[in-house]
Amino acid sequence: MGKSAAKKAKRMSKRVMFDALIDLFQRNSDRALTYSRIWKELHLTTHPQKMLCADIIGDLLIEGSLVETSNGHFRLVFQQRELVGTIQRSGNGRILFAPEADEESVYIAERNSMHALHGDRVRVSLFARRRGRGMPEGEVVEILERANDTFVGLLKVEKNYAFLLTESRTLDSDIFIPRDRLKGGKSGDKAVVKIVDWPEDARNPIGHVVDILGKAGNNDAEMHAILAEFGLPYKYPIAVEQAANHISDVIPADEIARRLDMRDVLTCTIDPHDAKDFDDALSIRSIGKNLWEVGVHIADVTHYVGENGIIDKEAQHRATSVYLVDRTIPMLPERLCNNICSLRPNEDKLTYSVIFHIDDKARVKYHQIAHTVINSNRRYTYEEVQAIIERQQRGSNEALPGDEYTNDLMILNDLAQQMRAQRFAGGAINFDRVEVRFDIDEKGHPVSVHLKESKEAHQLIEEFMLLANRTVAETIGKVPSKKAKVFPYRIHDVPDPEKLDNLARLALPFGHKVRTTGDKVDIAKSFNRLLADVKGKREQHLIETVSLRAMQKARYSTDNIGHYGLAFDYYTHFTSPIRRYPDMMVHRLVARYLLQSKATCRHDKEALEEACVHCSDTEQMAQMAERNSIKEMQARWMSSRIGEEFDGVISGVTEFGIYVEVDENKCEGMIPLRDLDDDYYEFDERNYCLRGRRFHHCYNLGDTVQIQVARADLYRKQLDYKLIRPESPRNETFPPLPPMPEKKGKKKDKKIKKGKRR
Predict the structure, then answer these.
(1) Engineered SS bond to 362: which of 180, 418, 562, 625, CB 3.0-4.6 Å?
(2) Spatial distance between the Cα atoms of 53 and 476, rounded to a whole number of angstroms
(3) Residue 457 clears pLDDT 70, i.e. is over it
């Protein structure tokens, strides 16, 4: 035994020795240990240390954690309690196990993990609980299901071997790749690598290259890497495209004869200027005094895509189109989404429609769901329609393209605005969202950035799509005194009560009140008043951010609980089958339920729910990929602005520093804690701030600041900013927040040391 080990053993406290004993018995769970073996393993040479060890062993025997198998031989008692759940790896290497049962999380040491990866479904055996440890511990005894064994990163190729430097925050080990498994990859290539083995005693997993995406920095390679990172497809199977190419674009006369013919009704599409997949159109005509027939016409994708065929299976796997900053990865082959199914102007198209009779107060008097054929008179962009609306509102006589349908557009807009007002009066939540849009050159580099806001032209389309979706859901699900048929709903649960209480606490010092109990419509109206009241005020970003965090995520399910955010009791997705698979499921079921007898309308609820879960999960992955592509472009945009100064708002507060979002382009970057060197800052997670211990200055979520662009890391898609302290009231601190009672067993706020990094 070395001198350092002996010295360490001499000063070992009872708590440290207790932990060391438990570790020793866990490592030797298959054998009994004697006193002499224990003393040797723990380097206990002095009589007081040996007696302390014997006392602890006696305590463990009394509490039943140890058993004496024979005279002087002890072993750990395993209660054989096992749980099934999911592994959660964080970027700092910490491993937690989340049980499927309603139990607390379990800490897993790396040596006890069987190299289980993030998201893996595993079986865990719990250890005897240690004294004073808040979290139980255990070891993985079986990996039941791998969540992901494929990773994206940068190849580093040496003479006899190679590594993939991973970009995943949940795998802190690079992947070793034998030279003969490189698939032609070279240093500096972005690659997709599959883990094939991870020996128990190895620091790094072993993998082989699945695909080479291209050189790092190349725009296509970077975008494909983002898709691959989230398990999303970045190329289309040739067999699926070939199957689509064999679909005829000629509509037979007998098919038109079976449908409601609406080709003579004024119809138009309104979409983004760069859209190619027009999956919805609106028609309008007068059918009496102050009464309008409005048709919401949706591309009839399922007429062309047979259920369980090769195209359908690929669409179900993809579940959604993915919209990256510079491209669309379609759910359907291009021949279908951009040609045959797309409601292009002056072409006969097959549609599935919801046709309404609406009076001038936007009240629906009648509706009909029908297979139709249409011929769109004109394709509008949102910008064109918005210009027409604003010109009419100003009373201008300026001539604009599309003027021949101005009156019809204004009627549709008036109805939409009334429906919107009625929806908010009924308790819908009004979150105004600003989206970042980049103009990209032919090489994929950003040349300009602008912010897209929802205007009346967008709301016009939105309200009629919401009306159609709700009407379809009500038609199938709202059946008094009958059992509703199995159906995929779009659901949104009520806000998290704890987060809602926290929002009310944060809003109070600014003079705002929000209801947290009572009728959900009253709570929603209170929410809307709060969001309206904070507009333009310094607390706006804080309140809006915490409000969003209080909201649950919308998802698909066969168990209808309504849609809280929209204030609808019944809601589904019917209006975008070109880009969402749930809409295709809805089209098929609606047609089946409305046209066939009840006896032939049985559907497997379990299988449909499984499809809903898959679509919800894939939707989340697609949204994360979209956000990552925006971060990629923001990093490129700001990389040419190193040293420039901007106004911004603190958009995030963490134990590692503060995030700032630039006002003019929404590019978010971090000011590392190590750069806040004027004080010793503590992270107050409950109040969303960093607080200086000595001078008590606070950096609050929502504070306005000035920053200078310091660094742009294109590989990690990260921006670092430097804080510029203004000599103005902009640095005024927020009013003090009322205290939040500590929860039982909850840890105190973390103390943050300078220099700690993300």
Answers:
(1) 418
(2) 70
(3) yes
Whole-number Cα distances in Å, 348 to 251, 338, 340, 372, 757 = 8, 14, 10, 10, 59
Q: Which residue has the tokens 């929860």?
A: 743
- Longest Cα separation, the chain: 104
Are the C-beta atoms of 652 and 644 separated by less than 8 Å?
Answer: no
Residue whose C-alpha is closest to residue 688's, from 716, 650, 715: 650
CA-based nearest residue to 313, from 559, 611, 54: 611
Report which secondary-structure segment, H or E, holds 38.
Answer: helix 35-41
Q: What three-state secondary structure class fits 463?
A: helix
Contact 358, 291 (CB under 8 A): yes
Angle at 236 between CA 232 and CA 240, to 5 degrees: 125
Asked if 597 and 481 touch (Cβ cutoff 8 Å), the reply is no
Residues 6+ apart with CB under 8 A from 513: 504, 507, 526, 530
| 264 within 8 A of 283, measured Cβ to Cβ | no
User: Residues near 240 by Cβ (< 8 Å), separated by ≥ 6?
Assistant: 310, 311, 314, 333
Q: Quick one: which of 71, 70, 73, 66 has its CA closest to 26?
A: 66
SS3 of 341-400: CCCCCCCEEEEEEEEEEEECCCCEEEEEEEEEEEECCEEEEHHHHHHHHHHHHHCCCCCC
- Distance, in Å, from the CA atom of 523 to the CA atom of 521, rounded to the nearest integer, reads 5
Containing H/E element for 590? helix 581-595
3-state secondary structure 703-730: CEEEEEEEEEECCCCEEEEEEECCCCHH
Q: Are 82 and 47 in contact (CB under 8 A)?
A: no
Of 406, 409, 405, 413, nearest in space to 362 by CA? 413
pLDDT tens-digit readout, 256-279: 999 999 999 999 999 998 888 999
pTM over 0.90: no
Give the span between the Cα atoms of 636 and 441, in whole angstroms: 13
